[in-house]
Structures are given as C-alpha cells and as structure tokens.
Amino acid sequence: MTKYTRFILLFFIAFFSNVHAQIKKTDALYKTIMSRDSLLFSVGFNTCNVGQMENILSDQLEFYHDKDGFSDKTKFMIDFKNGLCRPSKTYKVRRALVEKSTEVYPMYKEGEVYAVIQNGTHLFYEKETNQPENLTGSAKFTNVWVKENGEWKLKRSLSFDHQAKKASDENAFEDDQAIENWLKENKIPTLGLGIIEGGALKQVKVLGEIKKGMSAPYNTYFNVASITKPITTMVTLHLVSLGKWKLDEPLDQYWIDPDLANDLRHKKLTTRIILTHQTGFPNWRWMNADKKLHFQFDPGTKYQYSGEGFEYLRKALEKKFGKSLDQLAKELIFKPLKMNDTNYIWDQNTDESRFAIGYDKDGKPYPIEKNKVANAADDLHTTIEDLGNFMVNIIKGGNLKPEVFKEMIKQQVKIRDNKYFGLGFEVYELGNGDYALAHGGADQGTRCIAFVLPKSGKGLLIFTNVDDGYKVYEKLLLYYLGEEGKKIVDIENR
Q1: Which residue from 151, 156, 265, 332 puts its CA 20 to 30 A from 369's CA?
Q2: Which ranges of 322-395 would DSSP assign to H, the alpha helix?
C-alpha cells in the first residue's frame, strides 16, 4: 500500500467516523423537519392546497419518481394541479407517514447544518365519493431539505419502491387509519392494542367506535373475560411470596363446597392444582345436568380448563383472610401498579360511558355484565394501559420471590406440543430457552389475549368486543411479535 493510498484510507476513516448520526425524535431539528413534512403532505398534498405546496418547494426542486420519471418544480406543480387535484376528480388521495419509519440526518459544513436528509415510508389511500377509504399503495422516499432565506425548503425528492397494497396487508398496521379500515372490513367495533418493547409499554392504541358514531377513547374499559384469572393468580402468588399462603396446602381447612362435602376427593384440592387446571371440575357447574359441582376425574391427574376451580380458590382465600377478592387485589396488585381503571366488580366509580359494549358477529349488542361480587375467573374490566402495565410487571418478575416466579413459569402440565400451563398462565415453549407467557379471554361479546416474552422484553395485548374478534389475532401477532409471533401462531395451528 502506497503512502498516498494510506493517506486516502485514513482520511475516509476519519471523515466517516465524524459524520453525524441520525438525530433523536426529541431533537428540535427533527421536530422542525416533521413539521415541514406535515405542511408538505397533510396540508399541501392531502388537501390539494396549491399555495402551500408551491411555498414549501424550492425553485430548484428535482423530483425523481420510479414510475413517472423526473420532474422539476414547474412540471411537478402542473401535474399536481391537473392530475391529483383536478376539479373533475371523483376521488381523494391521502398520504400517511408510516409510524417509526422516519430517519433524519443533518448535513454539516464548517459545523453548521446546511441540509437535512429525511428517509421514510409512506402509505397512500384513495376515497371515492360516498365510499370508504381504501389503502392502495406504499412507497419509500428520500427528501433533501435545504435552508433558503432562513426557511426549510424541499430541494430533492426521490420516491421509489412503489408497491400496490390493500388494507389487509400486514404493513397496513403501521398507520392507525389503515387499522381502522381493516377493522371495518372485519366488522370489529373496537380494538385495543398494547405494544410492549424493551420491557416497557411503548404504545397504547384504542381504535374503532365505542358507540355508533363515537370514537373509542384511549382509556376504554373492556371486559377481558378469562384474563381475570392471571390477576387472581398474582393475588394468590403475592400471598405465597409473603409467606401467608401455601401452594400445596389442602384447601379443605378453609373451604369445602357443599356439593362436594360427601366426596373425599375435595381433600386433594390445592392452589397448585387449581392454578394448573387439574381440579377435575368442568368449566362451570351449570354445565352439568343437575347444575351441581362434581369431579369428572381425580384432582391432579390431568388438565381440564375450569373457571370453577378459580372460584373455589376465591372462597378459600376470602375465608382465611376475611376480605373479598377485590379488596385483596386492590391491596396487592391494583394500588401498587396504579391500575386505577381495573376492577372485578361494577361499582359507583365505574364510568359506563367508557365501556366497550360487546356484540355478536351480526352486530347485535349484549347486555353489560355488572357484577356486584367478584368472580375469580371472569368479567374483570380493565383498560389496555392498566393491563399492559400489569403484563410489564410480569416480565420483571411480578414482584414475587424468585422461587415463586420460577414455579409460575414452570411447565406444570402439558396442553399440547410446546404449550403448557404454569401457575395461572399458559407457557409457550419457543425454542433455545425462549418462552412466552399468555392468557386469553372469551365470553359473549369479548375476545381478548395478552402475551409477554420475558427474555426479549416484548409483548402484545389485543382486546376486541365482538364474538369473532379472534380472527384478527394472527396478523397482529405476526406483525408486532415477528418471529416469536410466528412460532406462537404455528403452535396454535398444529
């Protein structure tokens, strides 16, 4: 290598090591560029505001399109006025920036920013008169912004990788309006999403309508049905961690159901057997011909999902501690985690105007369950934010003693290949030591599910308020949980 070559190599190493990286979203320059982007598209492009569009474009604009070729500012504005914004047009076009896609890089000369590069992806929608809006395509872009007379102008723009899309495509989830359209296609009145990343609840989305013509608020209440069971589980395991309750102690000293008084198998019932669904009970006693509780097999011998088991545990807990389950939950779970919008019962503090009424698949509403007594297995009402923070706490060990948490995530009983019940949670075995904890809820007018992956710190909550809301689970899992989501879907589809 010659001295000249070494000099050039060292020069480029030094040069590129000092290039400024992508700036943070909290940076003032980032916010400025995003404001200019909004003026360019949300005002200029989306509303056909010709004056706004002309004002934000540099007179030296160079626009490169992978389908329509090159345009200078004059040609671009002619095409904008006579094409997209022609008066006779019967449809509207809207551009939406894909969430998280934007990258902003400052360009420096002698320590001063003279230009900014903006990279991103955007989605395009069309809406015919009196018709719903439809996703039609996506594209990537690179914009070069320069300061002219103290004002940022768009000087270079490259629009490329145009793809035809429809609302059901996975990447449509990047845009809230696309999700809203997708919900309408699938007849989902209300959808709640909680996205957990890095062991924190990063996003809460509540989309759709809580009532006809009324958008669902951020803090919508959902009946999460059997997701009640993980709450009851954590109440119980907190008591175990505090040394006030034992996993393997027979419950007959606290509670014996009158229907089982003459069946000595009730002596075999323990908290572990209940939390792993090995009681031998049906899901509910009313499913039996005589509406009474019976053992269908010996406790502890096999898996059978049962809400009755959790109700049995509730009565034992309440007998021992002289407190209702909802009181215990407030003390041990809700207050410490600031779950102020979560309750087992419907009381004077419940704001009915925020409740997502449940519907059947034909759009007929169900009556609201307004329990005055806690059910340990069902009908908890909560918000995405509250339950999201609860699930984040699970990722972090649930404030349990390590040995108790270890028992909780242990594969206690097999449901199917790679799927087990731990204590109160389903455990998915994902390979290479990775696992997911989950629980779902399904009642009339509600289909909900929550997942966390403790090793990666990721998770996803999906709440719907319709009988067939489960049909949106798979696409959402694949999109938000990626490869881990695919593994979960594969396990469920076996």
Answers
A1: 332
A2: 325-329, 384-395
